[in-house]
Amino acid sequence: MMDRYGSDVLATDWRAPRRGRAQEVEAETGLVVEDVETGWVGAVVHVEKAGGMTVVHLEDRKGRRKGFPLGPGFLIDGAPVVLTPPAAARRAELEAARKATTRTASGSVRVVGQQARVASGSRIWVEGRHDAELVEKVWGDDLRVEGVVVEMLDGVDDLAAEIRAFSPTPDRRLGILVDHLVPGTKETRIVAEAEKVSPHVRILGHPYVDVWQSVKPARLGLDAWPVIERGRSWKHGILAELGWPHANQTDVALGWKKILGSVRSYSDLEPTLLASVEELIDFVTVP
C-alpha cells in the first residue's frame, strides 16, 4: 500500500544545512581548505596563536599566504568543516603548560607545599616602588622560600649612612640594586663610597635611567625604548611617546601597571638586570 503522506519529516535531521553539518577536522599541514567568507583556497602551512586567538595560515597555488581564525567557516570538497588544532600542537601546548606550572617566573624549579620561610636578617634594597614590584613579580616566589625581604630606598644620596644604620654582619647581609649605575654618574661615586662601609654588602645595578627600561621593548611592541631629551621628565616623556596618558602621577602609575603587566617571566627582562638581581639573591642567601 502506498503511503500517501510520505515519511515523517520530523524523524530526520530536517534542520540540517544543505551541505550537511560541519565535521571537526584537524588542521594538519598540507590540508587544502576553502574559507567560506572570502572563497580563499589554500593548503594549511602552520597554526599559531596570535592576538589572543588561534590562527591557521593558508597558502594558495601562487604561493600567497593568508591567516584565518581557526574554527568553523571552512569547506573541504564542498563539505563544511570545523578546523581544530592538530593533535601534535595540542600535545605541545599541554606539555608547555605542564612545564610552566613547575617553574617560577624567574625560571627556578617551583617548591610545592612549602610555606614562606620566616624572614631572615638579610635584606635586598631597591630604589623605588616600581623596582620592588618588578622584583616581586619575577623573583617573589624564590625570595619567600629563602625568607628574604625586599625593601625600598628613598634614593641613594645617603647610601653610606643607611648601610651604617643597618649594620651588616656575616649572618645579616645586605644586597642593594641601584638604578643607572654607569661610569661617570653620581650613582657610581655614591656606590664607591658606600662599598667601603662593610664587606657584608654587595651593591650592583643596571645601566637604565629607570627600571622601566629593563623590560624588553618588544613586550610593548617597540624596537627600542624612546630616547627622552635632557630636562624632560623621563617617565612622562616615555608615556607621551607611547601615546598613553601622561598628565600626572596617576597616569604614570597606570602606565607602569601596563608595563609590569606585560612581564610574564625573566625572559621578558634585559640580561643586565637579571644578572644583578640573581647575584644579589645569591649573596644574601648562600652561606
Range of helix content: 25-40%
Tell me the series of helices and strands, N- to C-terminal: EEEEEEEHEHEHEHEHHH
For the termini, the CA-CA separation is 98 Å
CATH class of the domain at 123-215 and 263-285: Alpha Beta
Number of DSSP E strands: 11
- Using the alpha-carbon principal axes, give the shape: elongated
- Quote the average pLDDT: 85
* Structure classification: alpha/beta
Examine the secondary-structure arrangement and name the CATH architecture of the domain at 123-215 and 263-285: 3-Layer(aba) Sandwich
Count of DSSP-assigned helices: 7
Largest sheet: 7 strands, mixed
Percentage of residues in DSSP E strands = 15-25%
| Strand order in the largest sheet | 1-7-6-2-3-4-5
Structural summary, described in words:
- The protein has 287 residues and is an alpha/beta fold.
- A 7-stranded mixed beta sheet has the order 1-7-6-2-3-4-5, with no helix packed on it. It has a 4-stranded parallel beta sheet with strand order 9-8-10-11, with helices on both faces.
- It is elongated and about 80 Å long.
- The protein has helices at 87-101, 129-146, 159-166, 186-194, 234-242, 249-261, 271-285, and strands at residues 23-26, 32-35, 41-50, 53-59, 65-69, 74-76, 79-84, 123-127, 149-153, 174-178, 201-205.
- It starts with 22 loop residues before the first strand and ends with a helix.
- Helix 2 (129-146) links the parallel strand 8 (123-127) and strand 9.
- Helix 3 packs parallel to helix 4.
- Among the domains are: 9-86, SH3 type barrels, CATH 2.30.30; 123-215 and 263-285, Rossmann fold (3-Layer(aba) Sandwich).
